[in-house]
Every structure is written in structure tokens, then in C-alpha cells.
Amino acid sequence: MANLNYRVRLIFIRHAESEANTTFETICGQSSACPLSPLGLQQAALLGKRFKYQKANFDYLFSSTAVRAKLTADIALAAINVDPSQLILSDALLEQSQGDWEGKNRFQCYNDEVMLRMKELHIEFSAPNGESIRAVQKRTLAFLEPFIDEAKRRSVEANREVSMVIFTHANVIRAALQHFSQSEPKDT
Prior knowledge:
This protein is α/β, with parallel strands linked by helices. The protein has helices spanning about 40-55, 65-80, 105-110, 110-120, 135-160, 170-180, and strands at about 5-15, 60-65, 90, 160-170.
């Protein structure tokens, strides 16, 4: 876009605590059926209260298809009376696939050899039959970029900020932040 006078705000929100988050030993990955924990339900409600207090208004609403992300979105957005049908769901916003490691004990998978390999490959590392942060970044950006381009046009035409809220997962957020900040891949 030639005109750089657009204002687009991307708001990435990691899902509230899931049941899988309560047991650090287990590698969760993309397991999309994992529900929120009781604390996660409270966190999502508190996020909704914050949205209401801030009089939040979003032009675009996105969520991963994972139960934990969608439920976080549904609960938080209900507090500001957002129709849940406005939420655009996408598998492109799912957590990084951990392939063969999903559901396994973290301490058995992340041995010294694996940790060394992770340090060497950084953003390019992937679990066996899983995906790298770079792959997560590519699928996330391929999904979001058309909406971002549309938001830029809307911003210029309306001469206002256009906001996008994205309910997703930690590694999706890490991948997106590395791209948009152009930080060192090794720091991702």
C-alpha cells in the first residue's frame, strides 16, 4: 500500500489457562479439544471485564479453532456484547504442532541432545513429525495478511485506527512478534 498513513492495531491474546497447562510435564501442542481450567474460566471472565472497562471495540475478531482459545474469546467478548458469530475461526491460528511428542512427558522428549539441537536451529527446530516456529509463522501470516491489508485500506479511508483481536496460542504469538518486530530469530 503506497499510503503509509494507516493505523492498524493487532492485539494478540493467548488463551486462558487450559487443563493441560495445569500439568507442566505433558506436551500439549495442537490438541484442540483441551478445555479451560477453572482458573482459565476466571481469567477469561476477567479479560472480559477489562475489555468492558476499556470500552474495547474491535473491527476484526479471530480465534484459533482450539476449544481453549475459542472459549477464552467467547467469554471475554460476551462481556462487551459481541455477537459470537462475528468471530472468525481458523486452524491457521492453532498452536505449534509438536508431532510425535504431543501427549508425551516433556522431560523424556527434551533431553540434552534435543536442547542442543533447539539452540542450534532456533526458529527452524521441529519435533519429529511436528512443525517449526517458522512454519507456524508462515501459516499464521498467510492467514492474517489479507485481513491486515484490508484493515490498512479501511484505516486510510476512514482516517482512524482499525483494530484486530486474535485469540491464539503462545507459539503463534512468538512467531508473529518475531516477524512484525524483525527481531533475531534466535531470540524467538
